[in-house]
Design a protein that fits this description.
Shape: elongated
Number of helices: 21
Number of strands: 9
Length: about 550
């Protein structure tokens, strides 16, 4: 098999350009432009995939947005992740084939079908970023926050990628003919290398600490119970969260038509009862846009578990036994009094939001229900802000929890309950130094829990208490000195390897250049000898063979 027909060249050429046979005709300028496009789209898709992975913690928010608009509960976020993973894999593989083409000396003729796919890839990523900006902009702080968990390892990976790609850069540098091209390649490469090598100077992470300085593990608060193990806001869910060792139940309270406080999160006319019960089948044609439209007896008649088996919101149904599935099917909407009795039995606190258009009267009935339950008032973490003065007067034993630092300081409180991305890790540490209890919601992923643990968070509200319970320490912690040694060592090794590669490429280039000149001189000498010869064989000439030999052998090291 000839060089141009080797298996590697055949596959690489076919997959990148769909030209299975050697093609000497190429527009170098356009080919280089499309190679740049492939590189940029690959980097863009990798960044987008990173965004999807770090925001996976809040996938329920995206799914809820989809439900509110389409009235159908599907794991839309997982669909987005799968499409993004396929796109990223495609772009990265295409880039690898392009680099393989360069290494083999093949022309970079990108097929038109790849160009179309790249265009749609850019459109998809642009639509995703636009969607976050318009509908989910509160999620953007999660991306820079995630760097505190990933930045050290991203830097190591970037150094490795830079080292692997450097031979291609050196090849382009030596093959460039114009001086400005060489200068541009060198300047960009040096600038990128310096940025990658020195970025640890600005990397900050709370997990870069000594093991002896690691704060106490944050306590776990069950978000609507244990919604990965059982239907949210059901007694089964809260019972499952007890096995996870939660110190508090987090829930949402509404009042029925006959003034009974019950547990239900969805509270607007678009979603009330539709997502987590069979209300549409049970009360066909009835107005159920608000909790006050149904009595407690009617609410109790609804099934609050079947939806969990049908939609499998956290892909956890397969882990349930048949007996557990049967228990799920029999779940109903619990009252606040039922939850308080369970909390009292297990000495667990309760924190909740109060969803109501009539906060004044509903607060009175809710506080009355809590006081009549006999639960220890110090186990009640009061979060609703509307009637806080009345609650302080009627139930002074309740712990007042705030979702705003300013209001907390004005009213002399010392408990905060905020989204995990609202405060930086430095601010969390400062609040903890002031003996302020900081609870952060909703924390489901190990990496996020690890960062907040290192930062000193008091507690986290979570959907995945069963996963966080088994963590005995953060996913990683490094002493600052150890990290500095690793960083400097990795950089030095990379620089030495790239220096060796550059010298090897330079010597190879010089050798090929000299060999090409020597062969050119030999060909010219042979040509001159033939011209001086008095006679030539029949059908030959001084130009036969030697001209083509001169033309084809000028660069003997090509490819």
């Amino acid at each position: 098999m000839s060089r141009d027909d080797s298996c590697c060249r055949f596959c690489s050429r076919g997959l990148y350009s769909c030209h299975w046979k050697p093609n000497s005709q190429t527009q170098r300028k356009h080919a280089c432009c499309w190679f740049s496009v492939v590189t940029l789209v690959s980097l863009l898709s990798l960044c987008w995939m990173y965004i999807c992975l770090v925001t996976y913690n809040d996938q329920e928010d995206v799914n809820w947005q989809g439900f509110a608009k389409l009235k159908r509960w599907v794991n839309w976020f997982m669909v987005l992740v799968i499409i993004s993973a396929v796109l990223t894999s495609y772009c990265v593989l295409l880039l690898l084939f392009a680099l393989f083409q360069v290494a083999l000396g093949e022309p970079l003729n990108l097929h038109w079908l790849h160009k179309i796919f790249l265009f749609f890839g850019v459109i998809f990523v642009a639509c995703g970023i636009t969607g976050i900006c318009l509908q989910w902009k509160q999620e953007w702080p999660t991306v820079p926050f995630s760097f505190q968990a990933t930045a050290p390892f991203l830097q190591f990976g970037a150094v490795g990628a830079l080292t692997l790609l450097s031979p291609f850069v050196f090849q382009g540098f030596h093959e460039a003919e114009a001086k400005w091209s060489k200068f541009l390649i060198a300047a960009i490469f040096v600038a990128v290398s310096a940025a990658i090598f020195l970025c640890p100077l600005i990397i900050q992470s709370p997990c870069l600490i000594e093991l002896s300085d690691l704060p106490e593990k944050p306590k776990l608060i069950g978000h609507r119970g244990a919604p990965m193990l059982a239907p949210e806001n059901t007694m089964m869910s809260f019972n499952r969260s007890i096995a996870c060792g939660v110190t508090a139940f987090e829930t949402d309270v509404q009042l029925s038509k006959d003034r009974i406080p019950f547990l239900m999160h969805d509270h607007n006319s678009n979603g009330f009862l539709r997502r987590t019960t069979n209300v549409k089948e049970k009360f066909l044609g009835t107005d159920f846009s608000h909790s006050a439209n149904l009595t407690w007896e009617q609410l109790q008649s609804l099934n609050a578990g079947e939806w969990f088996l049908k939609t499998d919101p956290f892909r956890s149904v397969s882990s349930l036994s048949e007996e557990e599935k049967e228990t799920v099917r029999n779940q109903t909407i619990p009252s606040l009094l039922q939850l308080l009795d369970l909390a009292k039995q297990h000495n667990i606190s309760v924190i909740f939001d109060l969803y109501s258009p009539d906060q004044e009267n509903d607060t009175v009935d809710t506080v009355s229900t809590i006081l009549s339950s006999g639960i220890d008032p110090s186990k009640v973490l009061w979060l609703p802000p509307a009637e806080r003065e009345y609650v302080n007067h009627t139930a002074p034993g309740f712990i007042q929890v705030y979702n705003n630092e300013t209001n907390m300081l004005i009213e002399g409180g010392d408990h905060l309950n905020v989204k995990y991305s609202k405060f930086s890790t430095q601010e969390i540490r400062e609040l903890r130094r002031k003996n302020i209890t900081v609870n952060l919601w909703v924390v489901n992923e190990r990496w996020l829990f690890s960062v907040l643990w290192c930062a000193g968070a008091s507690s986290v509200t979570t959907n995945s208490c069963q996963l966080l319970k088994v963590m005995e320490r953060p996913d990683w912690i490094l002493a600052p000195l150890t990290y500095k040694i690793i960083w400097i060592t990795v950089d030095i090794v990379s620089i030495l390897i790239m220096t060796g590669l550059y010298i090897f490429r330079w010597k190879t280039h010089c050798f090929c250049h000299r060999k090409g000149k020597d062969k050119q001189r030999n060909n010219i000498s042979a040509w001159n000898d033939k011209e001086l010869s008095p006679s030539y064989p029949l059908g030959s000439s001084p130009y036969t063979g030697s001209f083509f030999s001169l033309k084809t052998d000028v660069h003997p090291c090509l490819h």
